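Write out structure tokens for Ethanolamine ammonia-lyase large subunit.
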Amino acid sequence: MTYTKMSLRELLAKATPFRSGDVLAGIAAANEEERVRAQMTLADVPLSRFLQECVIPYEEDEVTRLIIDEHDKEAFAPISGFSVGEFRDWLLTDQATTETLTQLSPGITPEMAAAVSKLMRIQDLILVAAKCQVITKFRNTIGLPGTLSVRLQPNHPTDDVRGIAASTLDGLCYGCGDAVIGINPATDNVENITRLLHMLDGLIESYQIPTQSCVLTHVTTTMEAIHNGAPVDLCFQSIAGTEKANRSFGVDLALLKEAHEATLSLGRGNCGDNVMYFETGQGSALSANANHGVDQQTIEARAYGVARKFHPLLVNTVVGFIGPEYLYNGKQILRAGLEDHFCGKLLGLPMGVDICYTNHAEADQDDMDVLLTLLGNSGCTFIMGVPGADDIMLNYQSTSFHDAAYIRKLLNLKPAPEFQAWLESLAIHDKAGRLLPIEKSNRLLELNTEVNV
């Protein structure tokens, strides 16, 4: 096989570390020798080639057009003469500082980020991601050094507000919820979404919690709720890395722009205007028959190209959620989570990871503990806080409030500073960010009985 004559699309697929989704798509390397040869060839590819050869034709895909048309040539200039391998080597040097990487990110395309990640060991992905810093703001400041935020995920199988309130109380008492209090609704219509939004808004207002809420419905439902006067903080949408895959989600770039502008118009943030929350996941394009023969990790990185167009507060790769068809076991989930986090951070995104697996995958909570610990050391922006790590509505396994407390304690990390101050005021945390015993006099314990139903 002549690797130097391969298209970028073929070469990226063959160079990808083994995963079940690429095998299912029929694009993976046949064996480890072929994979290593492809990686060696990829290392010699000039980064400039990614601006000349698109993995999905420019004329056929609006995500490709977005990536090419909005590429920052001035930011790219310092690395324009590098090959993929030279880029990898430079990223590991002390020259690649936090400030330098921040300036560079608009000049890196998603395909460049994906390509360099395929040449990296686990330790490389961790080391470089830890140097990337992305700060976003709405009602608090997310992504500062020494912090790790948590999405409090109080899902309920019937959207019962008392059940949601109980889970929310539990999470707040563990110091979770500074990224967002975000509900995946069991019933997805405007009336129910509006009801949940008012409940969360009342909770945040009553207890003066410096955080934001989100009900994870489709952007069109959120826009209708905004039109009806609902208190929307963040606008959520699942996105992918191809136009066809995004259309399978019922969105395109124009609709995302409309939703972004509608949410911005509310002006509900008091310290910033990052109002979008995006979720992604390797395999979504293939499951929609919309991958165009591109490997799932490169498609995932292209989704980050879509996300950064809209300056989100949060981006979350739900890494093991789609299932073993795409990431078969704990080893594949672990590698994918670190790749996604690395690529997102390198592209300038506030990257979180839902460290998760489905019950039919060859994975368990030990695998998630390892990935959590590695991501904590990688400077991950936020993780999930799910009661007992078991989402009883979505039926998958994630990370718990206790897991968040563990990684913060291990690495001496705190929540967002505004949220940390609120936790201190209620004696949930001390000034060092350590959890304190909950006193019976704590007003937060009244939450479950005061929620407006």
